[in-house]
Amino acid sequence: MSSSPSKMEQYWKKNLQTLAILLFIWFIVSFGCGILWVEELNTIRIGGFKLGFWFAQQGAIYAFLVLIFVYVVRMNKLDKKFNVNED
Amino acid sequence: MDLLSWTYLLVGLSFTLYLGIAIWSRAGSTQEFYVAGGGVSPLANGLATAADWMSAASFMSMAGIISFSGYDGSVYLMGWTGGYVLLALLLAPYLRKFGKFTVPDFVGDRYYSNKARVVAVICALFISFTYVAGQMRGVGIVFSRYLELPIEWGVVIGMAIVFFYAVLGGMKGITYTQVAQYCVLIFAYMVPAIFISMQLTGNPIPQLGLGGDVAGGVPLLDKLDGVLGDLGFADYTSGTKSIPDLFMITLALMVGTAGLPHVIVRFFTVPKVKDARLSAGYALAFIAILYTTAPAIAAFGMYNIIESTSEKPIDQLPEWVQNWQQTKLIQIEDKNGDGLVQYLPDPATNELRIDKDIMVLAGPEIAQLPDWVVGLVAAGAMAAALSTAAGLLLVISTSISRDLFKTFRPDISDKKELRIARLSAAGAVILAGYFGINPPGFVAEVVAFAFGLAASSFFPVILLGIFSTRINKEGAIAGMLTGLVFTISYISYFKFVYPELNTAEHWWWGISPEGIGSLGMALNFLVCFGVSWLTPAPPSHVQQLIQDIRIPKGAGKASNH
């Protein structure tokens, strides 16, 4: 392996930070907005939707999608920065 | 051309396409059979994963389940999509870097133990068999409804098709037929949805139509809340399940999704680690198209059914209601003899019984679309069932030929291994077909089983295998067995042994059997940590393996090394 151990540790730490942030949002949009706070959010309306219901049946899924693509972009950058990318 | 001819034509064309692809993409080596040669593009893998994932139940039943459970149905929407975030962030890239063919491969190598490998194989076989029986049944049901054939014939024809391309093409054949099957199924799902959305709300995008206004300028969802409330049902937009139960079911479905072997194995087929990440994103995008449309179909369907039947004279119902009465998917019985239909929550006075599948199956007729759309929906339902069945059958055959045979007879040649893989695929197709024709009484309950077991057995040990260097084989085996035994016991107790006790007051902490996989997972984690702590750390070559899978650099194609 070309990279030094300390550099590898840094890469792994950055990776874990990214995961922590993204999974925190993952939890908030689904378990938070879709289940725990659904009644409070349902008092807010967006068009014909109650907001809590919208999160549970639509919003959470869109958020998941954004999360994965943010992860893809961020990890590709991180791989390049630490020179562990594949090409 | 009449409806039946259109259906035969479209289903026949789609089958010809699948067979053509199968002949074009025959597998010549075990590498091609197990992981399609490791050269699938991220886009194609995303499409194939989406088709693999979306089963007959997603296509035909999910919208109906949401129709009848309203907000409570959200657990399936969030659970079966949120798992892809876990898969993309926590598992897929690392398992791809690991670079072998199966989940038991990883468990066996990471935990340096053939015992751990065998436990993983048993989990994989159990999960896949419970799941595949339902798919074969699904193929039979579609045949019997649309082509007016007996269910048994439908299962046999479905078996023959899957047999052909799974046995011949292995993962390579399956991957490219799944790409075609995704296109068929999503087109078939969206066409009626778009037209119904336009008719009801004037908005051609169903996801927006769900929040649109119906006749009279009232928002659709408010109208549903009102109408259902007047009839004595719970509000559509607020559920009846408790918050802890919603929470645990959603978690079990998410984690179970990430732990299903036939989904994980799809990420072994792409050339690079970054392709594994990207194709998880594509997969979720393609899945989300259907999963965000389903709640719209659910609400449109419920609205249409109530508007066209409730308090209406029985002899003046719309034609589509009369048509589907013949298949018994809609049943009307005038119990109080007033000549009107009453749709009520109390089964004693309710006069209208609707099968959940009607929301999707009757879509084209409700929207008054031409006959060929009905044929298209039949082909779509078939594509959904066949693609999932094929993916599961591959996991079964790989488990037998590679994880069991090759592990204990490492000296067999590639050619011989390929022959064993084909033979076990053939055996699995026949067994699955048998269960499709003679479904065990518990087919409806197996979803809870498959997801609960994936959540409580695989997910924790794979996750810890990547993110911890301290977890050892003793911990992993003890953890998997604890999760597995606990979850099987809890589900069996309430589903098979004492089904009459299956109510909220008897459940532990209000957690239903559908959600118990979450608790099984937590137990697995605890036991895994505890036992590992008391026993020696993994040897240095395993430490090295963990460091290696954590960085993308140096990922070759999946191989036999």
Architecture blueprint of SSEs:
The complex is a heterodimer of chains A (about 90) and B (about 550).
Chain A: H1 5-36, H2 38-41, E1 45-46, E2 49-50, H3 51-81
Antiparallel strand pairs in A: 1-2
Helix pairs in contact in A: 1-3
Chain B: H1 3-24, H2 30-35, H3 42-53, H4 56-69, H5 74-98, H6 103-110, H7 114-146, H8 151-201, H9 206-209, E1 213-214, E2 218-219, H10 220-231, H11 243-259, H12 261-264, H13 273-309, H14 319-326, E3 330-332, E4 352-354, H15 358-361, H16 363-366, H17 371-408, H18 414-437, H19 446-467, H20 473-497, H21 516-534, H22 540-549
Antiparallel strand pairs in B: 1-2, 3-4
Helix pairs in contact in B: 1-8, 1-17, 3-8, 3-13, 3-17, 4-13, 4-17, 5-11, 5-13, 6-7, 7-8, 7-17, 7-18, 7-19, 7-20, 8-13, 8-17, 8-18, 10-13, 11-19, 11-21, 17-18, 19-20, 19-21, 20-21
How far is it from the N-terminal to the C-terminal residue of chain B, by CA?
57 Å
CATH topology title of chain B: Sodium/glucose cotransporter
Largest sheet of chain B: 2 strands, antiparallel
Tally of helical segments of chain A: 3
In terms of DSSP E residues, the strand content of chain A is under 5%
CATH class of chain B: Mainly Alpha
Rg for CA atoms of chain A: 18 Å
Multimeric status of the protein: heterodimer
Mean pLDDT of chain A, to the nearest integer, reads 91
Major sheet summary line of chain A: 2 strands, antiparallel
CATH superfamily of chain B: Sodium/glucose cotransporter
> How many domains of chain B?
1
Spatial strand order of the main sheet of chain B: 1-2
Tally of contiguous helical segments of chain B: 22
Shape of chain B: globular
Structure description:
With about 90 residues, chain A is mainly α. Chain A has a domain at about 25-80. Chain A has helices spanning about 5-35, 40, 50-80; strands at about 45, 50. The radius of gyration of chain A is 18 Å and the shape is elongated. With about 550 residues, chain B is an all-alpha fold. Chain B has one domain: Up-down Bundle (Sodium/glucose cotransporter), CATH 1.20.1730.10. Chain B has 22 helices and four strands. Chain B has a two-stranded antiparallel sheet with strand order 1-2. A two-stranded antiparallel sheet of chain B has the order 3-4. In chain B, a hairpin with a 3-residue loop joins β1 (about 215) and β2. The mean pLDDT of chain B is about 85. Chains A and B meet through α1, β2 and α3 of A and α5, α10, α11 and α13 of B.
